[in-house]
Specification:
Helix content: over 70%
Structural class: mainly alpha
Shape: elongated
Radius of gyration: 19 Å
Strand content: under 5%
CATH architecture of the domain at 2-12 and 79-219: Orthogonal Bundle
Distance between the termini: 38 Å
Number of helices: 11
Number of strands: 0
CATH class of the domain at 2-12 and 79-219: Mainly Alpha
Order of helices and strands: HHHHHHHHHHH
Largest sheet: none
Length: 220
């Protein structure tokens, strides 16, 4: 199960031989810097996080942080990528093997996202700031051509393919896109209680699949 989850979320490396000392140090340094950025973001919000503060918290030199990440924007991107991919691993665990009934399974996964996001400090900080109209980390959660969005959509699309194998790839891709976009939208601007939103989105997604299946059948 763990191996399958790693494959689906594309968030963990496979088994490898031990790294040379220089590579191992760099990986450890990178992890320490991201941990420091995580803690500072949770404490004060990303808008108040500086590379100097991150370097001091991680106990590494400021030039080392610049060399690894290039600038503050790249550090922010790396932080959100790490946190969101870990979050997607939990979504994958909800979908696979998941509840037998597909609509109920999808509803459970959406509900997990809506509720668990509040338990993830960085994601919670991004969403809270976005609701007040300010946070430069937000685009990494919402951008269409971003690895975060693509990873979530790919995860949902692959799951839909296992539950609705009769559907065309284009239909699965479109439905997954709608599910991810609408879930993120409701994270930022909730309209109902999470369980109500999850049910509405799951019902709408299944209806979309059914309607498109009938359309494709009529065309054939």
């Amino acid at each position: 199960m763990a191996d399958e989850r790693r494959r689906r979320t594309n968030c963990l490396a496979g088994e490898e031989s031990p790294d040379p000392p220089r590579i191992a140090w760099r990986k450890q340094m990178r992890a320490s810097v991201l941990d420091a950025a995580h803690d500072l973001t949770c404490e004060a919000g990303w808008d108040r996080v500086s590379l100097s503060a991150v370097a001091a918290r991680a106990q590494v030199s400021r030039p080392s942080v610049y060399k690894e990440f290039g600038n503050r924007a790249n550090l922010g991107r790396a932080l959100v990528v790490r946190e969101t991919r870990q979050f997607l691993a939990g979504v994958a665990d909800t979908l696979y093997p998941g509840l037998p009934e597909s609509q109920a399974c999808l509803e459970a996964a959406i509900l997990y996202v809506l509720e668990e996001a509040d338990n993830q400090p960085v994601i919670r900080a991004v969403i809270a700031a976005a609701r007040h109209g300010s946070d430069s980390l937000l685009p990494y959660l919402t951008a269409r051509a971003d690895p975060i969005f693509d990873a979530g959509r790919s995860l949902v699309q692959e799951w839909l393919g296992t539950r609705y194998p009769e559907q065309h790839t284009e239909t699965l891709e479109m439905t997954a896109d709608v599910i991810v976009r609408m879930t993120i939208s409701h994270l930022i601007l909730p309209a109902d209680e999470p369980h109500i939103t999850a049910r509405k989105l799951a019902v709408a997604a299944v209806k979309l699949l059914q309607r498109q299946h009938h359309v494709d059948g009529d065309i054939r």
